[in-house]
């Protein structure tokens, strides 16, 4: 009785393999039909648990950057990461198209203090600080120590180690990361959300509860459509014009032009909870 399911599975695997090979021979016109994308999709549990694919691509990226990019060249570092993601192994960073949206938002906000949730391999932090004023500093919270190590090496090679700080942890870890960051009231000008999508809204509420934002602080959120952050989207739309002013940027999932995605750029209007007296 098991023969048919096994045969169907074998046929499916053979079909996918043939499609990937054909796509490769055709110059990869369909970006999803790549072994690195399929491995990424099959790494779901580990990705949620550890924040990395686990097939060595993150370390391979660090080696690629250090071997091919002149030290201190942030533009070349960003270009090398894009090239690696397009042609070697898919990476779950913000990508080239949405990276421009991120940089444009940073230029409009002109932040001095930036907070990023989700460093991954350090790509989005480089794009953000490149667009920020020269005296700006970015603090990147990353749940994976291995990812944080890759990001630090990439930042150092790009000459940005003095402007970016990695903090290993998560906003929902009982206050340890909030305490480690220790921002003063109203001192965070820009937040970029690109970590676990279900954590977007609760982590934003924790940041608001800590009192770190001020009227005019900007929060940019990636992947609001795919994989999706429906509660975050509903929250921003529900408070449009009262607590937030949001621009919805329609774009595509990183490194392809077939799957649509949504990036939210939200400016804080005030009226949010403030921390108790004496809180940092």
TrEMBL record:
The keyword Secreted does not apply. Pfam families: Methyltransf_3 (PF01596). CDD domains: AdoMet_MTases. The keyword Cell division does not apply. InterPro entries: SAM-dependent_MTases_sf (IPR029063), SAM_O-MeTrfase (IPR002935). PANTHER family: CATECHOL O-METHYLTRANSFERASE 1-RELATED (PTHR43836). This is O-methyltransferase.
């Amino acid at each position: 009785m098991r023969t048919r399911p096994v045969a169907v599975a074998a046929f499916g695997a053979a079909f996918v393999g043939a499609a990937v090979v054909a796509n490769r021979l055709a110059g990869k016109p369909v970006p999803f039909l790549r072994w690195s994308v399929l491995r990424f999709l099959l790494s779901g549990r580990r990705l949620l648990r550890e924040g990395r694919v686990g097939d060595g691509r993150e370390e391979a990226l660090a080696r690629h950057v250090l071997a091919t990019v002149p030290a201190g060249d942030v533009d070349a570092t960003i270009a090398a990461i894009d090239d690696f993601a397009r042609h070697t192994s898919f990476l779950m960073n913000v990508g080239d198209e949405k990276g421009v949206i991120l940089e444009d938002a940073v230029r409009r906000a002109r932040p001095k203090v930036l907070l990023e949730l989700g460093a991954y391999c350090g790509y989005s932090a480089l794009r953000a600080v490149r667009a920020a004023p020269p005296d700006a500093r970015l603090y990147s919270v990353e749940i994976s120590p291995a990812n944080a190590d890759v990001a630090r090496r990439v930042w150092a090679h790009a000459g940005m180690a003095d402007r970016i700080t990695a903090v290993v942890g998560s906003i929902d870890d009982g206050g340890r990361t909030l305490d480690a960051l220790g921002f003063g009231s109203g001192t965070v000008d820009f937040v970029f959300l690109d970590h676990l999508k279900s954590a977007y809204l609760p982590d934003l509420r924790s940041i608001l509860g800590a009192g770190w934002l001020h009227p005019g602080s900007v929060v940019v959120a990636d992947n609001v459509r795919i994989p999706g952050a429906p509660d975050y989207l509903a929250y921003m739309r529900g408070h449009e014009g009262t607590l937030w002013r949001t621009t919805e940027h329609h774009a595509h999932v990183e490194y392809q032009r077939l799957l649509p995605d949504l990036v939210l750029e939200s400016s804080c209007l005030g009226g949010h909870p403030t921390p108790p007296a004496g809180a940092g």
